[in-house]
UniProtKB/TrEMBL annotation:
Region annotation (Disordered) ranges: 1191-1218
Protein name per UniProt: protein O-GlcNAc transferase
Species of provenance: Coemansia asiatica
Residue span(s) of domain O-GlcNAc transferase C-terminal: 954-1107
Entry keyword annotation includes Glycosyltransferase: yes
GO molecular function annotations of the record: protein O-acetylglucosaminyltransferase activity
Transmembrane feature ranges: none
Regions of compositional bias (Polar residues) in chain numbering: 1193-1211
TPR repeat windows: 197-230, 549-582
Length: 1276
């Protein structure tokens, strides 16, 4: 049987697997499989026996019978003459098969073990002769047989026997490429058949496998001498040359093979691998092969793309329909090439080209029946008849079912399918092939599975492309069908996971679904339909892989969002059971456990996540929050802070927990710039630079608080670098500060696009600025690198624009937002002019702008943060943020390093609104019993005394009770040290805290004992958290409330003031709203000067003064007739002992309690009226366009910090507090004077609202004129 015969070629194609990049291993595998099937298959053997010489049959019969025993078949002498035996193959394989049969190995298993092939021995007495081989070395061979066979030298001259010997060699090569008999056997064949190409090819393989690259090259060259267009030899030479370090020469050989045969996939894939890999510089040697110049290191994507394009164009026969000159069996390799071409185009920035190549990669296996877009449309149409999808459309208010012709690719409806129906989309698309892609109909099961997997990967990549780049108006309408098709081709838990993530974000009305139950099985729940389907896909994915950690994690997050926190915890635990180092699951588990109130238990999982990924921000910050939440300050920071140095407040750092945390935090990424390190130390209040650890010692310089500060600071620094270089080219370093930033093409394109949206005839300041900036950018760009030729005026004006663009990406986004807001303003003016009541009366200005829901955004923040902005709704200069009397930051946004981009509405008393006057009338029982104010005050003191004895029965009456009812996370080491100092100076005082959470009690007790001793620690008293009404009522027990300074009491401060208890607060951070809230509400009571201090020492001194000046006396009296006394009378005398307290806190308490119904803090109606005045003024200014600053002048851009679209550098050192306040006060006073003059000298006005600035609301019946009110605020 000749290896070149059609029957052999067909057999080879039938049983060959996809060829790998390494041509040697692929060729060996292919040949081994073919020979194995041919030699061991009974039918194949019988069909080819007649080709063997009859005189060999008696000799080979034992070996043939031994082989056929594996097939339960036997030859005998009677039919031997009618049959022929495969001499070379049967004889060579017999020894290997016998050995395998003895140990019970199957044929497939035998192919996987390390064979030591048994070579038939030469009979004794046979003469050994030496025959020169082609290399000039004497080759020893048996005079009666070829080495490794029982075929004589003369018999091997026959071409048929030659081919059988070659098959034997292939079998030997597949079992052991380094078999020593191979080279001798093949050299004999080469000696007898010097121009036989298959022998030369196998010789080249064997020499290469034995590490003899030079000999391999030699025989490949011999092949090319015989057949210069032999692509096998050319490709083999490329692989050999690359292994020798001659990469450039190897590339030439591969290219030569590809130009001869573009569909020679071995060479294509090898060359593509070199281009896309990090190839090293190839040292060029004198190889006799011309080579290109030395290549640069790194991927060469442009050359890789050129290769793909060449092969693509060479093989493509037509584009409509798409057809390639590729054998059906090789379509999968063509598909991989197109997939690679799409990836390359995306990498090089060609999104449209990448999309087209991905689509071609799918369409090439669709058999020319339809395009991919048509398949997506058909899935949408078929899915429209699914019950789930019909229910979804009905919930969304959809109309009648669309006809097939109405389905367009760019405007498809959202298609929701269950996993079961998604698996059937292939049957709906290709019923004739029973759901098999037309291009894969001839593949076997294993090959079909592999081809489907590649197709699925292409579809997933294409879906991500549509999702990331919004190639259609509604990306999910295309993304979901692509995912369904990918899942149908290759059921994958990862695909189910991605589908679950996408579906969970689809908003829709609730529907019934089932969620996992802790008791096993499923429990009914109400969830949005997208979420319900997401649950099904997560569950379906777990059916495919019950150990998939990502599925468990995302399923847990979904259950947590639905309120099933305990079930979510079980899912997270499953995830880390199958992957104990899955950092995301560990962090999520920590979050869920913390949300259940078990803050202490969450620390373990945060720490485990941080150990796995020290730079995982969520894990590090979660650990920091959890540790701070229970006041576990071990390894919080180093020992070098000012608080530690001044107050001897050394945090514990020597236990195992602290050691673990220091180890984790020290292994995270650390800023290297000296300025960043210095700033971190400054923010943490380091008194000195922490010393570096000695060799082998643990680095205790970085605790979890240091690490969090580093992370935040690094994120701010990264934000400044966002898009840097996209819009501006920095000047050459040689020019220093005198250089000019040059605009990029992207900036000119960007400004040109905005100019078209805002015609200069628009007349608005924003349009004037955009056109001016575009003209300046074009002028500077035209000058090129010769910026010295620019006039001083152009340089000055251009520098003003550049100063705004320190954060290039943020500047561009905010400018776009301003343009969108301008267009929306124009739309609303059209509505008003047309008399319409809503935006539906005027058509949209174009596809660039959606109809706005609100023309301006307003919010009342309870936390220190800018509202921010969003396309089409919010604008950094036109948003209004409701702020309190202390919120003086907005008008100095650019100059002081503030981050607020909005302007404020300043309320006259406080921004904090409450409804305690109506909601918490717990004293009505007192007011109903008492008649005079003195009686009411006495009754209040009796109620305080009774509750005090009930809650603290062992506490002496002369003990002063400090209290704080905030959550424990608001307590920091510096503040706690201040509290301990107060207790040290006031022996008869306690501080009353809440177990909020309970786990914090032991940590604070431990720290108090270390810092102040056991006696002081014993006076830190904890109670459980009370219900809201009881919480407010028992707030009267405390003598004074010590506020937390890092983050003040907010609602709690209002609760305490309503109960009459004074609040001592210190607005510790001027730039943090949360640090100034209590001061705002305290000032609204009229007692701000008494309850607000300005420093740590003043905080301690004021508290000590309050406690030391406190006193009490007892008054005995009979209860009033007809009234039930609050305190129990003495059973013997019938007298009631009233405890009457005196001191500064009681003076404040008397005023707070008796006047709270008239207090501005609790006057909700007054607060509402004042807010409405501010909102009306904000709307009036927006409609009138008074908020738009004049951006056409570069001077206004650089100087008017209220209006410029500017990003301040976090590295700038802000002016001092006094300097900033002085400048701010001067400007406000000047503008107030101008406003009073414009108001005909009347200082009373509803609002003080300078054009383009914040809005100051004045109270209706406030006795203070506006100007005096502002001055009072500034002095305060």
């Amino acid at each position: 049987m000749n290896v070149d015969s059609p029957s052999y070629s067909q057999s080879l194609q039938q049983f060959s697997q996809p060829v790998q990049t390494d041509y040697f291993s692929s060729y060996a595998t292919t040949t081994a499989q073919t020979v194995d099937r041919w030699a061991f298959n009974h039918a194949s053997l019988l069909s080819n026996l007649s080709q063997l010489p009859p005189d060999l049959l008696p000799t080979l019969l034992p070996q043939i019978n031994q082989q056929l025993q594996l097939q339960n078949s036997q030859l005998n002498a009677s039919n031997m003459s009618a049959l022929a035996a495969a001499a070379a193959v049967a004889a060579a394989v017999s020894a290997s098969a016998s050995a395998n049969a003895q140990v019970g190995l199957s044929q497939q298993q035998a192919m996987q073990v390390d064979h030591s092939f048994a070579v038939p021995m030469v009979p004794t007495g046979h003469v050994q002769q030496s025959v020169p081989n082609s290399a000039g070395v004497g080759l020893q061979y048996n005079a009666q047989g070829i080495p490794g066979t029982q075929i004589t030298y003369q018999q091997a001259m026959n071409e048929s026997n030659r081919d059988h010997i070659l098959l034997t060699a292939h079998q030997l090569y597949s079992l052991n490429a380094r078999n020593p008999v191979l080279i001798e056997m093949l050299q004999c064949l080469h000696q007898l058949h010097p121009r036989h190409l298959q022998t030369l090819l196998l010789l080249a393989y064997v020499y290469f496998s034995n590490g003899m690259a030079e000999k391999s090259l030699e025989y490949n060259k011999k092949i090319l001498e015989i057949d210069p267009s032999n692509v096998d030899a050319l490709s083999n030479m490329g692989t050999t040359l690359r292994s020798m370090g001659y990469t450039a020469a190897a590339e030439e050989k591969w290219w030569e093979a590809i130009r001869i045969r573009p569909g020679y996939w071995d060479a294509v894939e090898s060359l593509l691998g070199v281009f896309c890999g990090a190839s090293s510089n190839a040292m060029q040697k004198d190889t006799g092969v011309s080579s290109a110049s030395v290549r640069k290191t790194g991927p060469r994507y442009e050359e890789a793309l050129q290769l793909c394009e060449f092969v693509d164009k060479s093989l493509c026969q037509s584009t409509e329909p798409l057809r390639y000159d590729v054998d059906t069996k090789q379509l999968s390799r063509l598909q991989s090439l197109l997939y690679s071409e799409g990836n390359l185009r995306l990498t090089l920035g060609d999104v449209a080209g990448g999309r087209r190549e991905y689509e071609k990669a799918i369409e090439v296996v669709l058999g020319g029946q339809l395009r991919l877009q048509d398949a997506v449309v058909r899935i949408a149409y078929a899915g429209a008849h699914d019950g789930v999808n019909q229910m979804f459309q009905a919930q969304q208010g959809g109309g009648q079912q669309m006809r097939p012709s109405a389905y367009k690719f760019n405007s498809l409806p959202l298609t929701l399918l269950t996993p079961e129906n998604a698996a059937r989309v292939l049957l709906a698309l290709f019923p004739a092939t029973r759901g098999v892609l037309p291009g894969f109909t001839g593949l076997g099961a294993a090959q079909l599975q592999q081809a489907n997997q590649v197709s699925s990967n292409v579809l997933l990549a294409l879906a991500k492309l549509y999702q990331d780049h919004a190639l259609v108006a509604q990306p999910l309408t295309v993304v979901l069908p692509l995912y369904y098709l990918a899942l149908a081709l290759a059921p994958s838990p990862s695909t189910c996971n991605n589908l679950g993530i996408i579906l969970s974000a689809i908003p829709s009305p609730p529907t019934s679904t089932l969620v996992p139950s802790l008791q096993g099985g499923r429990q009914a729940a109400q969830a949005p339909m997208g979420v319900a389907l997401a649950l099904q896909y997560y569950t379906h994915g777990l059916q495919l892989d019950a150990r998939h950690p990502h599925l468990y994690t995302n399923l847990g997050s979904l259950l947590k969002d639905l309120g099933y926190v305990q079930e979510a915890v079980q899912m997270y635990k499953k995830a880390i059971e199958f992957n104990p180092k899955f950092d995301v699951a560990l962090a999520n588990l920590g979050n869920a456990i913390k949300d259940m109130g078990c803050v202490q238990d969450s620390i373990e999982y945060y720490l485990r996540a941080a150990k796995v990924s020290p730079n995982f921000v969520e894990a590090v910050c979660g650990l920091a929050n959890a540790m701070a939440g229970v006041c576990d300050w071990r390894a919080r920071d180093g020992l070098w802070t000012e608080a530690a140095a001044k107050w001897h407040a050394v945090l514990p750092t020597d236990d195992q927990m602290a050691t673990d945390i220091f180890t984790v935090m020290s292994s995270g990424r650390r800023p290297t710039a000296a300025a960043v390190v210095a700033k971190v130390q400054r923010l943490l209040g380091y008194a000195q630079t922490p010393p570096a650890p000695e060799a082998g010692q643990l680095d205790r310089r970085r605790g979890w608080m240091d690490r969090v500060v580093e992370i935040v600071d690094q994120q701010l620094a990264d934000g400044l670098e966002w898009c840097r270089g996209l819009l501006l080219v920095p000047p050459a370093a040689a020019k220093g500060d005198n250089g000019v930033h040059r605009p990029t093409r992207a900036l000119i394109w960007f400004l040109d696009g905005l100019s078209r949206l805002l015609p200069e005839a628009n007349g608005s300041p924003l349009a004037a600025f955009v056109h001016s900036a575009r003209t300046l950018a074009q002028t500077v760009a035209a000058a090129g690198e010769n910026t010295d030729a620019l006039s001083s005026d152009v340089r000055r004006r251009w520098s003003a624009v550049v100063r705004q663009m320190r954060n290039e990406g943020g500047w561009a986004l905010r400018l776009v937002e301003r343009v969108v807001i301008g267009q929306q303003r124009r739309l609303y003016h059209q509505i008003a002019a047309a008399g319409g009541s809503d935006a539906t009366s005027i058509d949209s200005t174009g596809p660039e702008f959606r109809r706005p829901q609100l023309p301006t955004g307003m919010a009342s923040p309870h936390w220190a943060a800018a509202v921010g902005s969003d396309f089409g709704e919010l604008d950094p200069e036109e948003n209004v943020c409701i702020g309190g009397a202390y919120d003086d930051s907005s008008d100095v946004a650019g100059a002081g390093g503030w981050v607020y981009t909005e302007r404020m509405i300043y309320m006259p008393h406080t921004y904090f609104v409450n409804d305690h006057r109506q909601g918490f009338r717990e004293d009505e029982e007192l007011r109903g019993l008492q008649q005079t104010p003195d009686d009411l005050w006495l009754a209040e003191q009796d109620a305080r005394y009774r509750m005090r004895r009930e809650l603290f029965p062992q506490l002496a009456d002369d003990v002063f009770i400090f209290a704080n009812f905030n959550q424990l996370y608001k307590i920091d080491p510096l503040l706690f040290r201040l509290w301990l100092r107060i207790l040290e100076r006031v022996p008869k005082a306690i501080i009353w805290l809440l177990r909020f959470p309970a786990a914090g009690e032991k940590h604070l007790k431990r720290v108090a004992a270390v810092w102040a001793g056991d006696e002081v620690a014993s006076r830190v008293v904890f109670t459980d958290v009370a219900p809201k009404h009881m919480h407010i009522k028992r707030g009267r027990i405390a003598d004074a409330f010590l506020d937390t300074t890092e983050c003040n009491a907010h609602t709690t401060a209002v609760d305490i003031l309503w109960s009459g208890t004074p609040v001592l607060t210190w607005p510790r951070h001027e730039h943090k709203l949360c640090s100034r809230v209590a001061a705002s509400v305290a000032c609204a009571t009229g007692h701000g000067r008494t309850m607000v201090v300005n420093g740590a020492d003043e905080y301690v001194d004021r508290a000590v003064e309050w406690a030391m000046r406190a006193s009490h006396e007892y008054k005995f009296a009979y209860p009033a007739a007809g009234r039930t006394p609050i305190l129990e009378p003495d059973p013997q005398t019938g007298l009631v002992r009233h405890r009457l307290c005196h001191g500064p806190t009681m003076d404040i308490r008397l005023q707070l309690f008796m006047n709270r119904d008239r207090s501005r803090l609790f006057d909700t109606q007054r607060w509402t009226r004042n807010l409405e005045k501010g909102l009306e003024e904000a709307w009036r200014r927006w409609v009138a366009g008074e908020d738009e600053a004049d951006l056409s002048s570069p001077a206004s851009i650089s100087n008017n910090t209220d209006h410029c679209v500017q990003q301040s550098s976090v590295d700038e050192t802000p002016p001092s507090v006094d300097e900033r306040k002085k400048a701010w006060c001067s400007r406000i006073e000047r503008e107030i004077a101008e406003a009073v003059e414009a108001n005909n000298g009347d200082e009373r006005m509803d609002v003080f609202a300078p054009a383009g600035r914040s809005i100051w609301v004045c109270d209706d019946d406030d006795v203070m004129p506006a100007q005096k009110w502002v001055r009072e605020l500034m002095e305060w």
